[in-house]
Design the sequence.
């Protein structure tokens, strides 16, 4: 279980981070249903961490995406982990061994700047290294889905600021969605102030609430 000393927080749910990903980020974004199309599907994530969300998303994509579809997964990460640490953390889940093996084989020794990795035919990872707000300010193409997965709002409030949520909204297609385990009042208010329709749902593993929502189509 990786732990951040900088933010005094675990990287994911201590009961089962892979199942949490499915409950919060995939279901919160109404996936895999929304990627049943031929047009490229673009997912963005705040906080790559161990790559667990990427691997579980890719696993579900492999089993459900239509033939000829493509997935572009972009993750914004200030402190990229080392290959050995990623491999060790993800080894906990045999369900994603295929994805873990390929990711760690292709992971650079010293990630910096924009890292582009072709994981499989039709599946591409972009890792953007640096502070999230600055990195998002340089992006122009919007995304279909967002995984908002920074450390806990109480420990890392900058990752949930009004400015950052406004940048996320700007980079969301009309009808695009977000999902997050966070349910703090200021996070919900910042997402709503940015323009999202925000929905509360039951959280994972006994957590009372999580948030998801949509950028209105019109």
Sequence:
């Amino acid at each position: 279980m990786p732990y951040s000393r900088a933010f005094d927080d675990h990287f994911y749910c201590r009961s089962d981070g892979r199942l949490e990903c499915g409950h919060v980020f995939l279901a919160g974004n109404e996936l895999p249903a929304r990627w049943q199309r031929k047009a490229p599907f673009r997912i963005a994530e705040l906080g790559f961490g161990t790559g667990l969300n990427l691997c579980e998303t890719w696993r579900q994509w492999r089993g459900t995406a239509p033939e000829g579809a493509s997935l572009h997964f972009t993750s914004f990460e200030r402190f990229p982990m080392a290959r050995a640490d990623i491999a060790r953390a993800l080894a906990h889940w045999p369900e994603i061994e295929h994805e873990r093996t390929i990711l760690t084989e292709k992971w650079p020794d010293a990630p910096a700047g924009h890292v582009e990795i072709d994981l499989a035919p039709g599946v591409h990872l972009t890792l953007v290294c640096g502070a999230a707000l600055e990195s998002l300010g340089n992006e122009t193409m919007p995304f279909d889905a967002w995984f908002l997965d920074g450390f806990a709002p109480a420990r890392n409030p900058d990752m949930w600021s009004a400015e950052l949520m406004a940048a996320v909204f700007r980079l969301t297609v009309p009808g695009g969605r977000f999902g997050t385990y966070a349910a703090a009042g200021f996070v919900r208010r910042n997402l709503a102030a940015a323009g999202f329709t925000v929905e509360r749902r039951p959280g994972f593993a006994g957590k009372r609430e999580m948030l998801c929502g949509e950028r209105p189509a019109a």
